[in-house]
Amino acid sequence: MDLIYIIREYWPMFARGAEMTLFLTVTSALLAFLIGSIVAVMRIGPIPPLRAAASVYIEIMRAIPLLALIILFLVALPKIGIFYSTTISAILTLGIYTGAYVAEALRAGFRTVPKGQIEAARALGMTFRGMFLNVLLPQSIRSVIPPMGNLLISNIKATALAGAVGVQEIYWAAARVNFDSARSIAVFTLAAICYLCIALPTGFLWRKLEARMKIVR
Amino acid sequence: MSATSVQPLVSLRHVDKLFGDNQVLYDINLDIAPGEVVVLVGPSGSGKSTLCRCINRLETINAGEVHVNGELLPLEGKDLSRIRADVGMVFQSFNLFGHMTALENITVAPIKVRGTDKKEAIELGMKLLTRVGIPEKAHQYPAQLSGGQQQRVAIARALAMNPKVMLFDEPTSALDPEMINEVLDVMTSLAQDGMTMLIVTHEMGFARRAANRVIFMDEGRIVEQAPPSEFFSNPKTDRAKDFLSKILQH
């Protein structure tokens, strides 16, 4: 069978690819969460220019295909004198791209808290910061966990696009092996299995987290 | 009685408010003296709630000035928060924080805004819960309380900041009839203790009993104001007469 042959001959490449995919996923997800949180707070905050900037950022990021963005970052940044490795450039792009979606997910979560509670907090003399930390955030965390799980899994799959610009992750490894072995179906079946092995446990763990957060009042 | 000797706690001068093109307050002038209990009445849509919410700038105004305790309300920021901390507010829909127990609802602002010691805040919180008659509900969440109980917690929450003035925006309008009195009783006792209060309400019995002054609003204007005995028995304007005849029929 082709699949067994491919696994036997090429598994180190796929293993290294999976390692890189995991690395891209974790780093870009952390970056996306950081960016998304900041943008979401800007978006609902009391300072109009920051609100506008956050909206513009979100709209632009959602309107550009990720592949175009990854290539653009890679070729455009050196032109303005910023040099990164291909890997770092891909992580930055993924983080900035997914960050926009994280910001929107958080904002949707904030909206689940009744407006009256926000007014009550302000009426008690809480600043925006105090209201946010004591009233808004604790009550929206639970409702943003499911969409965050979606984004995390999307992000795993999105890392494949980094392979297109030469980052040596699973998709890149598959393309190389395919070139070498000319057994496309087996090669890309194995690539798909590799992604499943990362995405399925992630989804499972996330649901555990979700269930756990439900019990906490 | 627009006292000139005592500085009013709340003072509105020529306040206009628009929602888009729709003007809801016209040239509002109002002084509330320390210790005074003012009840705002009028048909729905007359601007009572909006006026109430302008006093702590939950609604921004389009013209005029609002002073609280002699200080002009700032537009935004820390100074506004500082003044709001001195103005207690009770809402129609209670607006308790859903993830906090009754006691936590009461202690959060003293601890986070005033920097009160946690133990002290809890002591004060329990005292206030006793005052509003439900100390046994301290560790219940809002969803576990009846409307009347939630509103009493909300009053305790506002009182915990030791406010100079309390605003009540239709505090009993969302309550089942059998719970209205438990809330009005708390408000009456507050009034008797000398708390300065502005109350938007449809409870005319309460207005008669507890108010020093009744203000009648219609279509965004203050139409008439008088002590309750005078207002209810001898309204001067046709609009007030009309309003009272509709309201007091049953």
Report a brief summary of the structure.
The complex is a heterodimer of chains A (217) and B (250). By secondary structure, chain A is mainly α.
Could you give the topology of this structure?
The complex is a heterodimer of chains A (217) and B (250).
Chain A: H1 2-44, H2 48-63, H3 66-79, H4 86-111, H5 115-123, H6 128-158, H7 160-163, H8 170-181, H9 184-215
Chain B: E1 10-19, E2 22-32, E3 37-41, H1 48-54, E4 63-68, E5 71-72, H2 77-85, E6 87-90, H3 102-114, H4 118-131, H5 147-159, E7 165-169, H6 177-192, E8 196-200, H7 204-210, E9 213-218, E10 221-226, H8 228-233, H9 238-247
Parallel strand pairs in B: 3-8, 3-9, 6-7, 7-8
Antiparallel strand pairs in B: 1-2, 1-4, 4-5, 9-10
Helix pairs in contact in B: 3-4, 3-5, 4-5, 5-6
Task: Walk me through this protein's architecture.
- The complex is a heterodimer of chains A (217) and B (250).
- Chain A has 217 residues and is an all-alpha fold.
- Chain A has one domain (2-216): MetI-like (MetI-like fold, Orthogonal Bundle).
- Chain A has helices at residues 2-44, 48-63, 66-79, 86-111, 115-123, 128-158, 160-163, 170-181, 184-215.
- Chain A is elongated and about 70 Å long.
- The radius of gyration of chain B is 18 Å and the shape is globular.
- By secondary structure, chain B is an alpha/beta fold.
- A six-stranded mixed sheet of chain B has the order 6-7-8-3-9-10, with helices on both faces. A four-stranded antiparallel sheet of chain B has the order 2-1-4-5, covered by helices on one side.
- The chains are: A mainly alpha (217), B alpha/beta (250).
- Chain A binds chain B through residues 46, 113-114, 116-117, 119-127, 130, 134-135, 138-139, 217, and chain B through 56, 58, 76-78, 81-89, 91, 93-99, 108-109, 112-113, 141, 154, 157-158, 161.
